[in-house]
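Recap slide: Plexin-B1, sequence and predicted structure.
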Amino acid sequence: GDNLDLAITKEEVVVLIGEGVCAVKTLTKNHLYCEPPPQQPNCRKCEGSDNLPEFTVQMGHLNFSLGKVQYDILSSPTFPLEAQIGVGIGASIVALIVFIIVLIYRRKSKQALRDYKKVQIQLENLETSVRDRCKKEFTDLMTEMMDMSSDLVGSGIPFLDYRMYAERIFFPGHRESPLRRGLDMQECRRQTVEQGLVQLSNLLNSKLFLTKFIHTLESQRTFSPRDRAYVASLLTVALHGKLEYFTDILKTLLNDLVEQYVAKNPKLMLRRTETVVEKLLTNWMSICLYTFLRDSAGESLYILFKAIKHQVDKGPVDAVTRKAKHTLNDNRLLREDVEYKTLTLNVLVQGGGVNETQPLPSKVLDCDTITQVKEKLLDQVYKSTSFSHRPHADSLDLEWRSGVAGHLILSDEDLTSVVQGSWKRLNTLQHYKVPDGATVALVPRHTKNIHHDNHDYIAGEKTPMLEDADEGGMKLWHLVKASEEPDLPKHRRGSLRERERAKAIPEIYLTRLLSMKGTLQKFVDDLFTVILSTSRPVPLAVKYFFDLLDDQAGQHNITDPETIHIWKTNSLPLRFWINIIKNPQFIFDVQVSDHVDAVLSVIAQTFMDSCTIADHKLGRDSPINKLLYARDIPRYKQMVERYYADIRQTISASDQEMNSALAEMSRNYSGELNYLVALHELYKYINKYYDQIITALEEDTTAQKMQLGYRLQQIAAAVENKVTDL
């Protein structure tokens, strides 16, 4: 309605439904709300057959009849008995299933908890055993190293002389240094050619010619990265007597390189050795740090090398697969359990016409091949002699002596070798049943005893060749056979894969890596500390070059500290130290075996990771080698950053100081290298790209004024009798 509450309140309004009262709750201008009785009331004046109560509203003397009200009757639903039984049975089954699941879950939880505790106990026992093994191995190794240190007092560290060091650094990968070849020419022309080469040496003193020469070669498509490194090393030898000039050329070329990379991505500079200047820098660092290696870092590196070699040799090493029980490299880890024991042999060394010496007790393993035994015996008998002055294992036979006349030559292969199908096993001391305390002799090999020249070993290598069984050859094995999967029918290959996978699953063998890492930790720390220490004066060349990089960054507005850090890392650790750590034979007169090289590679990679700024996120798929040193790398990174910061804060090295040091090195070492051969090798590249070099010189007005092209034509006429425009 309208204006319902103008003249009345809700208490005065009476609302009825039949005989029942509808309680008024709200009265507004337009609405009246009331709450009816819960049950349908009886009608007051029943009319008609429906007997429904009337809905009336009394407002004072006004009565309003608004119609009849009918309540909905909710009839109670009927639920069939069968359905009730079904629901009951279903609920019982569900309850039973839930009960069983809860029971199984609780049982599995208890089992899992028991397994967890069992694994936890196993891990604790494993950790304890690894720790105990590390302590024992470390104690044994320290004892051995103390004995070795006392030997070094008498014999000294077998450093290479400067000439051998320089040749191995400058020309890696060459079986023989090209400087050893000599000038290959007719005697009648030798004097003329040598005069021409001296003229070439003088021409190289022209900075304009030298830079034009290098840039011209580098612009040729056929001038490969290998050629660039070779030419850089030849230039290093040719200019070795003028290291101040060499350094000036290096700075000029480096400036060009910086400008080139600043336009692209400065962080990639000096990352690889793809240009002549990058190899020149490697050689320059190697020349300048030779004294530091001999006086400071060399001892720690040599002791680390000997510690690795001693530790690797204490366990089995497969002569065919080159895998070892004691290693840091998971790719070279011998996972299989090999039964072995240590034997002490009494060694006699016999030379041609030389009386046998007093027997020397030496330790080997009964699972070693005969070649491995000879190498270990030579290491122990000639421990005070550098490698190049020892007899080679291939030049000696191992003779087992028993009684007066009992002499037996032992070899890797003979008629007694065990053959199974296409597999032949290399002979070991175990095979010959050599007892502990046996007497053996190293005797010069005679031609009649050589029986495996054709197929046993690759010339100059120690790895037996695996010939193809299909061609009727024998496949050799030592401790573990290589996979035979390719020879199996297809339906059996899957099961073999499963067996291989099952064999690889026991990561328990990786504790051997941890044990080796723990044993060598002190020696690795000592080496990294001596390399990255500023407690003693930093090599002048390092300070000078780092200042040069800082200056270059300032000139090109490079303020990102990460970029400068990368430049320094790429110029010193990556370019020099990694090379030396991975290749001790560059500085020492030693032989580095494959399994020792595998360990050194891991240590070198760890050093490289320590020099990078980026954080390495480690996960399940990370290389094992990175996980091994995951806790140590942050500490090493701090050492590197402190090293760079300390160098930056020291007093700058002046050009005068650097030139004085370079002049002294030139005087000390210039006579060591055959610069005429280097000039002759350089001329071969001049001859190959003669027209391009002459064109580049003629196009430059300054070069024309200096008559550089004319001088090169004179050299060509002298060295090669070349017909020129003269």
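Residues 448-471, 484-494, 496-506 have pLDDT under 50 and may be disordered.
The chain is about 50% helix and 10% strand.
(End of recap.)
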